Amino acid sequence: xxxxxxxxxxxxxxxxxxxxxxxxxxxxxxxxxxxxxxxxxxxxxxxxxxxxxxxxxxxxxxxxxxxxxxxxxxxxxxxxxxxxxxxxxxxxxxxxxxxxxxxxxxxxxxxxxxxxxxxxxxxxxxxxxxxxxxxxxxxxxxxxxxxxxxxxxxxxxxxxxxxxxxxxxxxxxxxxxxxxxxxxxxxxxxxxxxxxxxxxxxxxxxxxxxxxxxxxxxxxxxxxxxxxxxxxxxxxxxxxxxxxxxxxxxxxxxxxxxxxxxxxxxxxxxxxxxxxxxxxxxxxxxxxxxxxxxxxxxxxxxxxxxxxxxxxxxxxxxxxxxxxxxxxxxxxxxxxxxxxxxxxxxxxxxxxxxxxxxxxxxxxxxxxxxxxxxxxxxx
Length: 379
Ligand SMILES: Cc1ncc(COP(=O)(O)O)c(C=O)c1O
Prior knowledge:
Largest sheet: 7 strands, mixed
CATH superfamily of the largest domain: Type I PLP-dependent aspartate aminotransferase-like (Major domain)
Oligomer: single chain
Order of helices and strands: EHHEHEHEHEEEHEHEEHHHHEEHEHEH
Bound molecules: pyridoxal-5'-phosphate
Number of strands: 14
Shape: globular
CATH class of the largest domain: Alpha Beta
């Protein structure tokens, strides 16, 4: 094997994302024992900075779970939904569907409220479903990565609570890219991961847990072992993970979260994402026949889904455009495969996505859009 054959592409997909040089270098820092005081040298700041980036209010606890975003979502379902209860999974795309599948695959009684791809959650339909289903728990996706829709989680959480349901939020693809509004939204649990807007490798799910979720978990008899949020939080109180962590990733996390909080600044990071969103959306508006896919007013600051004009198929996006962009040194995102296949089968035009998350800069976006525009012109 020749590792020199591994391409170092500029990643414009929706995760994993480009890793800065300093963070790559931090991957070569020494291993350490996760039950040793060396762990604290990394984790005191990691846990403090995660709270700052989330803007999480007092009373919430944070834990790192080995795995990824789905692992954290699965822990939320196993720990917070009893077998005699129903969970309502609100879905606006593939990742809302994922929360529903996780619920069903864990044997829970689960109902899905599904909105059309590209649409955001509509509150009147949520209200109607809450009255009909009377769920104990509601799940919702903050940033739907398959369609580029950003949901108003504050409104959904408030509505769920009014109907006596615990709100759980999947924030896998948005944490670190915008103000999450958690003090207002107050989800019982917010699940996220390292490999998206934090611009780190994958390896941990990250859970923010309210006290009410821990109280509820006490009433759920079978929560599993690694999927038990009480066990997870118990270990996190001493700044450790329940099971052996990837210490390379912890080294990288310590460096990257310190950079986000103390060098770039959280507000500046959010403003950079908002700027890139505006750049990409303006560029799309200028491309003849191309359209922004997500509903206006609910578009993501960290990624954009673009509907192509008639005549450009998913196969062309995947096999032609993607390969041409690779030759230029980029990893192009030809859209969420299952969604594009379904849309084409229904006679609808496919979408591609532009990830502008993590440590991607406006200059990088400008260069990318220029080159992508040239290639679109050649199709
Ligand atoms: C919104 C959302 N939820 C959940 C997931 C699943 O997360 P993971 O791949 O980290 O398990 C993803 C991954 O892309 C996602 O974008």
